[in-house]
FeS assembly SUF system protein
Amino acid sequence: MKFTDDQIADIGEEIIKVLKSVYDPEIPVDIYELGLIYDVQISEDGDVKIIMTLTTPNCPVAETLPQEVKDKVMDVEGVKSVDLELTFEPSWNKDMMSEEAKFELGML
């Protein structure tokens, strides 16, 4: 079964909700608002590709955080598979945070 564009958009919204439930352990802001998610692609078959980064390459959760993201996204209805790519290009910096995240951290 192939998903329609509307269904793909709905799956995308659910994935973003899930991503907003995952927090960087060192910063009290979710990984989506922090700007750690570079790209989410959803195929019409329900295959999801996520490109994400960490705040630093030697982040203490480098092992567990991507797995947590993968597991939570797999639980979204309609998702058949999750391919998660961890990248450090471009490397993350605080300008990638949303206004909301900057506000939360007292940077505005």
Q: What stands out?
A: The beta strands are 37-42, 47-52, 81-86. The chain has one domain: 5-94.
